[in-house]
Amino acid sequence: MHVFVTGGSGQTGPTVVAELIAAGHTVTGLARSEDSAAKLRRLGAAVHHGSLDDLDSLRRGAAAADGVLHMGYGGDFAKPEEMVRRDTNAIDTFGRVLEGSGKPLIVTSGTLVMPLGRESSETDEPLADGIAGFRVAGERTCLAFADRGVRACVVRLAPTVHGPNDHGFIPMLIATARKTGVSAYVGGGRNRWPAVHRQDAAVLFRLALEKAPAGSALHGVAETGIVFKDIAETIGRGLGLPTASLSEEQAATHYVSPFMGMLYGIDAPVSSTRTQQRLGWTPSREGLLQDLVRGDYLTARQEK
Length: 304
Fold this sequence. Notes:
CATH class of the largest domain: Alpha Beta
CATH topology of the largest domain: Rossmann fold
Number of strands: 12
Number of helices: 12
Radius of gyration: 19 Å
Structural class: alpha/beta
């Protein structure tokens, strides 16, 4: 299969591109800069110059492919309406090109669109007014093409996709611990945090492209919900720092922003049982706590 990929030079993207190529697929990646283009070429992918705002370029890329994998998402988070507009316009462009072809259109979302406070599954409705509600419009735009001859599918990734050189929520948590001298959690720390290794996520994206049924919502989650206090204590032991509980008010000023203080206190367990059964996906890489101990997260380095 010849796959047109957006976001292939980001954090998770290169691992996905490498997985696709290793499985015998060919990849053309969207590149906005020469640095992105060089990274894609090193992986063995062809380069298509353009951006998510250049809809004509997106049409050409999709038209030349046997399927589209949309992982790109960018913009100013202070302007969520612009990010949603860019994302939905890109997805709509891909869908219209693929309409009636039966080709796959795989769009990335996140499990934080799901209801909080209980274990959610793939059959639950995402929340447009939730913490990651800005992702829901893109999901709906994609899945609407399932009735228009496109094998449209959404992959919701866990908030932590861990692996080497991560620069997501966990490194931000570690940086705060280094800066403040304490590895903290909110309240009793019993809230649960889902995670998946980057290599396992890459396999899921490949399987989705190869065989996910039209209209599928898939969960890229290997660990349903790690107790957040366990994450904080593992970081504390690794850095030789004490752990401590924060009130919600304290968390709002302890972390880099009130939003992060709120985020680290949410209870967001998510099941991927249906995804694993449907696609034969079996996550096999080490879990987040093991990666914190054996990976590069806690090695001595300055905050980037």
